[in-house]
Design a protein that fits this description.
By secondary structure, the protein is an alpha+beta fold. It contains five helices and three strands; from the N terminus they run ααββααβα. A three-stranded mixed β-sheet has the order 1-2-3. The longest helix is centred in the N-terminal third of the chain and has 19 residues, at 2-20.
């Protein structure tokens, strides 16, 4: 029962933060194309881990510093928009799962089948 509540809170935090990120004036954040891929909040609502995926990965460290700097502002605004007893402390992490998935898919495309009878198996992207 509680995990369903935490799931709803995670979705609400993700939706509200997506809108709030557009209001951040820090140029490290404002100039970046970023997406919140996942939010994971602790059961006591004290901490939220926010996973961010950036389009331009070359300036990712600057983006993370900018988000950490804007964390107080984002937490304050989030607290005003959400009706929670505690507003969780926001912790930002770079999410490399998309790049990792692309790397795995690329590796699968280069694997030769061991059995020639299985050579006609088509990977989903080859269709």
């Amino acid at each position: 029962m509680a995990s369903n509540r935490i799931g709803r809170i995670n979705e609400e935090i993700q939706r509200e933060l997506s809108g709030l990120l557009r209001t951040v004036k820090d140029p490290r954040v404002a100039d970046a194309m970023l997406t919140i891929t996942h939010v994971d909040t602790t059961g006591d609502l004290r901490y939220s881990r926010i996973y961010i995926s950036a389009m331009d990965r070359t300036h990712e460290k600057d983006l993370m510093r900018g988000l950490k700097s804007a964390g107080g502002y984002l937490r304050h605004e989030l607290g005003q928009r959400l009706q929670l007893r505690y507003t969780p402390e926001l912790q930002f992490f770079a999410d490399d799962s998309i790049a990792h998935g692309a790397h795995i898919l690329d590796m699968l495309h280069h694997v030769k089948p061991a059995n020639p009878a299985n050579a006609d198996i088509v990977l989903p992207e080859d269709k």
